[in-house]
Design a protein that fits this description.
The chain is α/β, with parallel strands linked by helices. The protein folds into two domains: 2-122, 3-Layer(aba) Sandwich (Rossmann fold), CATH 3.40.50; 148-187, no CATH class. The protein contains six helices and five strands. The protein has a five-stranded mixed β-sheet, with helices on both faces. Helix 3 links the parallel strand 3 (66-69) and strand 4 (95-98). Helix 3 packs antiparallel against helix 4. The chain starts with a strand and ends with a helix.
Length: 187
């Protein structure tokens, strides 16, 4: 079977080779042919992952028969995203194999487990969000400022026209680069 290996790490400090080497070894043991290895260094919560997009493109062209990942959260955390991906994979007759969580959609039980793991990942993300909101509400009730410091959105340069307009500080970063005169003349 021709397999595509998808590897994702969240930061530049992490080593994608750790995942890739284990997945390649699995392919050798299983007598799978590695069609290609796709490596992204970015958050899994975004679809703006170049190698993931290339993987999808190659899947749609049926260049491989299965996608192999290290862990379910490497391909995405949103349940809807995972279910949509699985649905598209099924329509293209492409299986999904998750090495460390023993998910293999070549069987009905593997498809069920994939859906359950996706639900738990979404549930965990929702719990984290809920706890954060509860903590912020408690802090507000106690009179603790939550969020950005007051005035952080206003430019710190006293003569800047942007200060009066209340525009974001990020738009005033040109003060640091080109000086006040360059910024003022561009207004």
């Amino acid at each position: 079977m021709r397999v595509a290996i998808y590897v994702r790490v969240s930061t530049d400090d992490q080593k994608p080779e750790n995942q890739a080497d284990e997945l390649k070894d699995y392919c050798i043991r299983s007598e799978y042919t590695v069609q290609d290895v796709y490596i992204d260094k970015c958050s899994g919560r975004t679809d703006d992952r170049p190698e993931f997009q290339r993987l999808l493109c190659d899947m749609r062209q049926r260049k491989f028969q299965a996608i192999l990942v290290w862990k379910l959260d490497r391909i995405g955390r949103s349940l809807q995203h995972l279910l949509n991906l699985l649905q598209e994979m099924e329509s293209k007759k492409v299986d999904f194999i998750c090495l460390t969580q023993n998910i293999d959609t070549t069987s009905p039980s593997g498809r069920l487990l994939f859906q359950m793991m996706g639900a738990f990942a979404q549930f965990e993300s929702s719990l984290i969000s809920e706890r954060t909101k509860i903590g912020m509400a408690r802090a507000k009730r106690q009179g603790i400022h939550v969020g950005r410091p007051k005035g952080s959105k206003i430019c710190q340069f006293p003569d800047c026209k942007r200060r009066a307009k209340g525009l974001s500080k990020q738009f005033c970063n040109t003060h640091k680069k080109g000086g006040f005169e360059n910024t003022a003349s561009s207004l």
